[in-house]
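Ticket #4471: structure export looks truncated?
Reporter: QA, pipeline team
Priority: medium

Steps to reproduce: submit the single chain below to the structure queue and open the exported record.
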Amino acid sequence: MIIIRENTEGEYSGLEHETTPGIVESLKVCQEIAENEYPEIKFDSMIVDNASMQLVSRPQQFDIMLMPNLYGNIISNIACGLVGGPGLVSGMNIGNEYAVFETGTRNTGTSLAGKDAANPTAFIRASADMLRYLGLNHHANMISDSLYRTLVEKRLHTPDIGGTAKTSEVVKSVLEFIAEEMEEHKWRAR
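Actual output as written to the record:
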């Protein structure tokens, strides 16, 4: 599932808003244009309370969710909870000139600081997302595969997902799998 949300931190009370003096945008007009230009894309709209309930009860019905910032924040936090928590999901902020890669929720995890108990998965996935964005797919795949082997094959899990592993142990395992992959393919870091 992909959740796309407006990321300028502003909320709009109606369907229309003035982005700059004299220029009014209408979500209804944009929707009509999109429906006419892309008839093969099925579009449904929902109010956020129903979308939240539907996401919890039948998440498989959603492929891509597009929404304003506040609703996107709520929905992305619900989605993170459905897959195991904020420590598992990465997020991207893509602009015209810059991109930021981070955890999928803005949960800072300050209560875990210095305890070696935070789940590093979201940050590791964010690093792979960044490498893909930069066109370094081989590097991204190496990280993703090493994370997969750590979580699934080695079953090394932090407390938030039912394990006893420390943050440092998960990171060490990922690094060991990366080193193994590099050695196996005689690949050197440059």
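Status: closed, not a bug. The export was complete when the record was re-opened. Leaving a note from the reviewer for reference: The first strand starts at residue 2 and ends at 5.
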